[in-house]
Amino acid sequence: MPEGPSIVIAREEMTVFIGNKVVEATGNAKIDMDRIQGKMLTDVKSWGKHLLLCFDDVTVRIHFLLFGSYLINETKSATVRLGLLFRNGHINFYAASVMVLDESADALYDWSADVMSDKWNSTAALRKLADNKEELICDALLDQDIFSGVGNIIKNEVLYRVNVHPKSLVGKMPLEKLKETIKQAKIYSFDFLKWKKKNELKKHWLVHTKKECLQCGQPLIKEYTGKKKRRSFFCKTCQKLYK
């Protein structure tokens, strides 16, 4: 599943179509194509893992789920979920969830929750964590209402950076450690973006899918943690468990 920084890259690549009308909308998405065809693309936005194509009266939300992808001015031998043809090129979406929303993106989304947004509010994130004291920090970091855009890779790398065990209870973590986690969630997301653009993201992983701890040399633990049983990679020596 693409994480927030990957959606930012998609957003940036698609801005070339802003100001152009959709000449043809095709694909097997269960939406009314007539609501898009002939309409001008006014903006492309991202909120967490959602890519938002903005038109005058509707917003098309793309969620890439586990295996979704897109191609610009290219095609592949797979079923097109949504294809948008403009006079200056085309976009094809594959294996993604496509929804047409009647309201504007600004009316639907809380930009202060998006770690990649200029409107990201770390104080609000801290308040939300205070309301979820019984949550494991591995679940809280994946909560899109708190850390929109943070996915499993970012979760693992952030917790290793701040030396916190993924099964720590939010309510047992010191305030300064919570603030450090919030800060690193944003910092690492932008590091992710930088490295992804250079096609060198995996080279910079410190813990995700790794076998040994870079700090102490001990074997890392791989465990499916939290409510969704997502993969966590961590060092039980260097990452403190708050419980």
UniProtKB/TrEMBL annotation:
Name of protein: Endonuclease
Source organism (scientific name): Paenimyroides ceti
Keyword Zinc-finger annotated: yes
Gene3D superfamilies, A to Z: 1.10.8.50, MutM-like, N-terminal
Family, per entry: Belongs to the FPG family.
Domain Formamidopyrimidine-DNA glycosylase catalytic: 2-89
Keywords linked to the UniProt accession: DNA damage, DNA repair, DNA-binding, Endonuclease, Glycosidase, Hydrolase, Lyase, Metal-binding, Multifunctional enzyme, Nuclease, Zinc, Zinc-finger
InterPro entries attached to this UniProt entry: FPG_cat, FPG_N, H2TH_FPG, Ribosomal_uS13-like_H2TH, Znf_DNA_glyclase/AP_lyase
Keyword Hydrolase among UniProt keywords: yes
Residue intervals of the FPG-type domain: 206-240
Catalysed transformations (reactions): Hydrolysis of DNA containing ring-opened 7-methylguanine residues, releasing 2,6-diamino-4-hydroxy-5-(N-methyl)formamidopyrimidine
